[in-house]
Amino acid sequence: MTFDPRLKIIIFLTVAATAGLFGLADPIAQDPAYHRFADRRAALGIANFLNVISNGPFVVIGYKGMRLIAAHENNRPLGSLTALYFGFFAGIFLIGCGSAYYHSHPDNQTLVWDRLPITVAMTSFFCVLIGEYVSARSARQLFIPLLILGLVSVAYWYITELSGHGDLRLYALVQFLPVILAPVILRLFNSAELHPRVVWGLLGTFAAAKIAEHLDAEIYSLLGWVSGHTLKHLGMAAGIWIVYRELRKRKDEAGTAPLRR
Known about the structure:
Layout: H1 6-23, H2 49-53, H3 56-75, H4 82-104, H5 108-133, H6 136-162, H7 169-188, H8 196-214, H9 216-223, H10 228-254
């Protein structure tokens, strides 16, 4: 079997990012200021009310996505990528739960339960992207190892924090490398099923959400009723809804179509 030369670019970028992060960057400890969000208002007995309840869309979309994937199993329009898509929506559902828990009492200990499902969602969707654009077989082979790597990245960060020299580098690689590689994959490969606009929509909302997160206090000061972090949650949920709607459309169009993989 001939090795696809386009994969060399993906491998090179992965190796370069990993080597640069671990070879050139010092360990990155968790900034304590990360937990001090601009909007700390309580309501209905819930601390940090808007930052907590704005995770509701993740729970709803994640649950709807899992149900949709389960329904997909009946006519198999997702083929061999069914488990990967299910992992993505399961991660989203758990993000809603874990993030709400974290924001009700933000500290490093509760942050673990926010970050663990983030790695599940990120690695699952990256494998979906590989499966839709590059190779379904490779995506299935990568799925479990990358899931484990994501979970290990959070455990490693937390253990190093407890020992007094926190290191977020592996977690940062798990979270951001898929975002860096996604546009490259879209440029180099084509998919017959997953339209690039869906991926670009998710990437665009991710970028906007990160900007809103960075401008948390500034947005809250400007608007007075909602903070950047709350908008981050809502923006990311909007991106995930784009993915859900695309899969819902695929299911509606598939009907009794034969298995595509």
